[in-house]
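Hey, resending since the last one bounced:
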Amino acid sequence: MGKVEAAFRGRVIRAGEARGEALVSSEPVGFFGMMDPGTGVVTEPGHPLQGRSVAGKVLVFPRGKGSTVGSYVLYALRWNGVAPAALVMASCEPIVAVGAIIAGIPAVDGVEVSAFETGDRVELADGAVRILAVP
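The structure tokens again:
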């Protein structure tokens, strides 16, 4: 483990451990019709993450939005090998919670997402979320 730059404790939605590069959105993230389940690329026009892939990233966002089919899209992302490594949110709603659970994606909420920047190295374990200092 690297030097910790910032640490947070969140509510565990789906237990697990993950480590990866943060991909941060200041806007809510939708999965159904707003993300390609085959590639993990955000397709929602005008979204801050449009054209970016969530594959292998620690996806940091305020909350989910959209259709209940979004749960299935999270599962499809996992099935296709392009799922986020973890989900870190300010507030998790049922669509994202169910998706994270069925897809086996570690997820927490209750975290101050504005403290994260795209490119941060992030580690998640048992509700603890750490931004690691770059050596």
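The chain has two helices and ten strands.

Sorry for the duplicate.
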